[in-house]
Write a structure and sequence with these properties.
homotrimer; alpha+beta; Nuclear Transport Factor 2, Chain: A; globular
Chain lengths: 150, 150, 150
């Protein structure tokens, strides 16, 4: 690939990954279970603290259609993400950042969850997809902090 | 347009839209009514739950110079945005994401508003501008969730 | 530089600056004092309200290894940033945006700090680095709002 095109491709990769992750919150908070699952590769996984590990798109969609998330939607919620720090390595990438769940209690908005996230992504025939997202609550545990480490 | 330049242009468009939206919070929280209004097209609108719909730049500037926003500034506030998921279509684009207003009560920071946002943007002779921003509180209403839907 | 390459370079610069700032939170919340300090130029500074001004990498690393930040890590915390509005000017840049510190109290997550931030950056032989980050609490003070102003 000519040098200029390689530089362009690297920017496109980073843009695609950032956009993929930015779509999570709007899809989750509009209750779009298939849309959320479609961010992941077919054999992708989501390991989110407080829930059984979800392996494969059906299981990931099940987190959105399941009772905990549906209650959050009924209450009123926002799955807010921070910016992600992206490391590209050919057809693979890692992104690190925070996620925060805000919830309407009926009287006020509360900070319901604050988590560390490590996203593993790969580029396949359908573009960039998530292969593994790990999410752990930042409540003082070293394992959660480790997800954010270089 | 040659293929490489078209790819570059698409990245520039996404960058310009992201930057436009990223400027909202700093402009709002520095009380820059004209700066906020200048993000919108001349005939642009801002439909923000809890306020009368603001059509045109004077009305949008009026939201910033008006008593509710001025009280927030005097209290201490942050109009924090999450990342936006951007869909480009030629000279038009849609961006979806969350916004959160944090407020100093005098004793602590409270989560004052948590909203869904859908931004409609167009590219004109002055570059990308907002034509419509819709904002609705995520308190369990389906209409708010719908702003975030694909 | 040919026009296309200059446009590509401008996008790369913005991407590098955004990524640099996006790395702050994960590095801070994984307790990586050297990693945080390495975002700054050798003679860079961090003026953060509530702490003595930190000039140079050793002093900046000392903010992370110091007792206040270490207590936050032990409690559970997230240094969440919002998007930054970036102004490029050759080998210098300014970025403006919010930062929020969320803390686990042992019983709930609280909004511990909400700040305005102005980042000054320069491009040197090691790429883009922070030369000055100013951080002030948004508790109604005009000086904090001024950091966000155009």
């Amino acid at each position: 690939m000519p040098p200029l095109e390689a530089r362009l491709q690297a920017l496109e990769d980073r843009e695609a990954i950032r956009d993929l992750i930015a779509r999570y919150g709007p899809l989750a908070d509009s209750g779009d279970a298939d849309g959320v699952a479609g961010l992941w590769a077919k054999d992708g996984s989501y390991a989110v603290q407080g829930f059984a590990d979800a392996a494969g798109r059906d299981a990931i969609a099940g987190l959105i259609s399941g009772p905990v998330h549906q209650q959050l939607l009924a209450d009123g919620c926002a799955h807010l993400l921070g910016p992600v720090a992206i490391e590209l390595s050919g057809d693979a990438a890692t992104a690190r950042g925070h996620s925060v769940v805000l919830r309407w209690t009926g009287q006020a908005f509360e900070v319901h969850r604050v988590s560390a996230n490590r996203w593993q992504l790969t580029r396949g025939s359908h573009g960039w997809q998530v292969t593994l997202r790990e999410n752990a609550l930042l409540q003082g545990d070293a394992a959660a902090r480790a997800l954010l480490a270089r």
